[in-house]
Amino acid sequence: MIIRHSNMEDLEDVVRIEQANFSPAEAATPEAMAERLKVISDTFLIAEINGKVAGYIEGPVVTHRYLTDELFHHVVPNVAEGGFIAVTSLSVSEDFKGQGIGTSLLAALKDLAVSQNRLGINLTCHDYLIGYYEMNGFVDEGESLSTHGGTKWYNMVWENSLKK
User: Fold this and answer.
1) DSSP string of 73-110?
2) Calculated CA dihedral for residues 103, 105, 108, 112, nearest 10 degrees
3) Rounded CA separation 120/140 (Å)
4) What's the pLDDT score for residue 68?
5) What is the total count of domains within the chain?
6) Is 10 helix (H, G, I), strand (E, B) or coil?
């Protein structure tokens, strides 16, 4: 497996994976994904196996500790220094599920956060994924204010221990 930065050639695969893994109310539109590929490519990672996109993780760098709903609808350029990488999507292709792709992408994003001197990573998840993110070093910081997709979310935060 190779984990690399994204490029516009990944758009079709990323959209296919996004739409397969999220409800229509939660999934990013193809236009939103194209904008993310253009604007935040330095925090948009692709897992590739044998030339195929196996999954991806992406999100802008923001100054606030928790992800906000506006980030799902408007792409903001990454802040230059500090901040948290706010994961707006982590998704694995059905063909590659159960192989640790998501965990590898989270580990790569942590490495990226450290190398970019970020405070950490934040994301929201459904209650059934809290244990998964805790297993990957994130802390459950309670129910989120997010109403994205009309559902309940939980704030998960990983802090860069080198920034303390």
Assistant:
1) HS--PPPSSS-EEEESEEEE-GGGTTSSHHHHHHHHHH
2) -130
3) 14
4) 86
5) 1
6) helix
Nearest to 127 by CA among 108, 112, 142: 142
| Amino acid identity, position 28 | A
Range of the domain at 12: 2-163
3-state SS string for 11-53: HHHHHHHHHHHCCCCCCCCHHHHHHHHHHCHHHEEEEEECCEE
Upper half-sphere CA count for residue 62 (Cβ side, 13 Å): 21
Give the number of other CB atoms < 10 A from CB of residue 103. 13
Sign of the CA dihedral running 7, 11, 12, 16: positive
Q: Is the predicted pLDDT of residue 65 greater than 90, yes or no?
A: yes
> Which tokens go with 108?
């790569």
Q: Looking at residue 164, what is its pLDDT?
A: 55
Residue 124: CATH number of its domain? 3.40.630.30
CA distances from 88 to 59, 73, 154, 164 (A): 5, 10, 13, 25
The answer for residues whose C-beta is within 8 angstroms of residue 31's C-beta and 6 or more apart is none
Q: What is the pLDDT of residues 83-130, one digit of tens each?
A: 999 999 999 999 999 999 999 999 999 999 999 999 999 999 999 999
Q: Which two tokens stand for residue 136?
A: 């990957």
